[in-house]
Structure formats: C-alpha cells, structure tokens
Write a structure and sequence with these properties.
One of its GO terms (biological process) is mitochondrial respiratory chain complex IV assembly. This is Cytochrome c oxidase assembly factor 4 homolog, mitochondrial. This protein is mainly alpha-helical. It has a domain at 20-64. Helices cover 70% and strands 0% of the residues. It is built from three helices and no strands. The N and C termini lie far apart (52 Å).
C-alpha cells in the first residue's frame, strides 16, 4: 500500500500570494512571534497594509475598465 502525500494549501496564504504582499504578511507574523506583542510590530503592520491598499486600488481600477 502506497500513501500519497497531498500538499494542503491554506486559502489565506494562496490569496496573499496573489496580492504580492505575502512577504510583508510573513514579516508581521515573524515580528509578533518574536516580540509576543503585536503593538511592537506597527511598522510591519503599516507596510503590510500599504501593500494591500495598493493591491486593492489596482484591482479596483482594473475592474472599472471592464
């Protein structure tokens, strides 16, 4: 009997890969993991939010042209 391993993908991770902001998301998670305090990670949160805002604005603009 052979067991085939299937890679389980996280829907959130897949969505973040599409935005191009996954690296910034990982930096937020890393900071929170290291500091154990999200309040100390505001710079990383701001960078992630800016990236997501840019993605959402571009997405909105492209939808307006359809």
């Amino acid at each position: 009997m052979t067991i085939h391993s299937q890679e389980v993908t996280d829907p959130l991770e897949e969505m973040l890969k599409k935005t191009g902001c996954i690296d910034k998301h990982y930096k937020v998670l890393e900071c929170i993991s290291e500091t154990k305090d999200w309040r100390k990670c505001q710079e990383q949160v701001k960078d992630f939010r800016k990236c997501m805002d840019t993605y959402n604005n571009k997405k909105r603009e492209s939808e307006d042209f359809k």
